[in-house]
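Example S7 (structure tokens).
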């Protein structure tokens, strides 16, 4: 009987350790089942390509299948909200971009989630700069000449965008604030129609993804005035940045990054950051990113979190100062 009581006491003492393993212990065994990366947009776009590139590398390094799950709707909000509501165990991740993370929160009256509070940034995967272009028929050769030309014609020039609330729209509004020029915004239903009218000289300018503009710049159908990244782009080495052109702190990139639900164990976040960093720093992946006109620099979860906070603050400032109406 005494032996039985001793055994029962030992089981009682050990039971909490067995039944309730600590966070670090869970992280050490991670992953023990397939991981899902939610892409809140349809297949085929840049964000989808990047998610699949990362998923293939993670599957090899983690020893588990990593599935890309496209959950499109409401400009990326539906898929992002689904991840916010998922368990914080590292098995449901989000590949996101500015739209649902920093642009919509700046433009909408209400959001079903708070980017800063409800998600844990893991790593910025890539960033693509935008470029400001004009048709060659416009008599300007540089950004300073464009500003001078526009200021002499207040309200007469137009800038196109791929739609109200898109990066090309808010970048145009940001340019107006930075330079003091008065231009009319002309929104289109997509980048294609907007580009057509700029190419045709019916609209004076657009600030759009560099990768989409490069062929037209190379052919001479468009003239590049400035790049919106902090440093010059390898694809357009002769084009100065907005900052070089005298507009301090004018930095806009379309970025893509990996997130997890809040309270995901820090050990899992750290491991994912390290594994994805290895994938992105490989020569093969670097070549793929260059082909896509994308850039990547090593970054920690804390650095990515700070970047996202700054991006959200920037767009809130642009929306407020431009007087743009909030969307329901």
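Recovered sequence:
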């Amino acid at each position: 009987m005494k032996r039985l009581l001793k055994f029962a006491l030992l089981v009682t003492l050990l039971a909490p350790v067995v039944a309730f393993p600590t966070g670090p212990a869970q992280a050490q065994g991670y992953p023990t089942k397939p991981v899902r990366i939610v892409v809140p947009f349809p297949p085929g776009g840049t964000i989808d390509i990047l998610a699949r590139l990362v998923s293939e590398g993670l599957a090899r390094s983690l020893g588990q299948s990593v599935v890309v799950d496209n959950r499109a709707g409401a400009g990326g909000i539906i898929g992002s909200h689904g991840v916010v509501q998922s368990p914080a165990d590292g098995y449901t991740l989000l590949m996101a971009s500015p739209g649902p993370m920093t642009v919509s929160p700046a433009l909408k009256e209400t959001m079903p989630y708070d980017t800063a509070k409800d998600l844990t940034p893991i790593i910025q995967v890539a960033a693509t700069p935008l470029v400001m272009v004009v048709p060659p028929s416009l008599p300007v050769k540089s950004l300073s000449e464009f500003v001078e030309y526009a200021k002499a014609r207040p309200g007469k020039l137009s800038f196109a965008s791929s739609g109200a609330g898109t990066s090309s729209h808010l970048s145009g509004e940001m340019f107006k604030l930075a330079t003091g020029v008065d231009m009319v915004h002309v929104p289109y239903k997509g980048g294609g129609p907007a580009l057509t009218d700029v190419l045709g000289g019916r609209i004076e300018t657009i600030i759009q993804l560099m990768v989409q503009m490069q062929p037209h710049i190379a052919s001479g159908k468009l003239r590049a005035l400035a790049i919106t990244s902090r440093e010059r782009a390898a694809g357009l080495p002769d084009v100065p940045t907005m900052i070089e052109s005298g507009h301090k702190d004018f930095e806009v990139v379309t970025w893509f990054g990996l997130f997890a639900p809040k309270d995901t164990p820090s050990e899992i976040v750290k491991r994912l950051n390290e594994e994805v960093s290895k994938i992105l720093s490989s020569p093969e992946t670097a070549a793929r990113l260059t082909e896509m006109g994308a850039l990547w620099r090593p970054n920690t979860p804390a650095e990515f979190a700070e970047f996202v906070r700054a991006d959200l603050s920037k767009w809130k400032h642009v929306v407020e100062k431009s007087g743009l109406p909030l969307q329901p």
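Notes on this example. DSSP finds 13 helices and nine strands in the chain.
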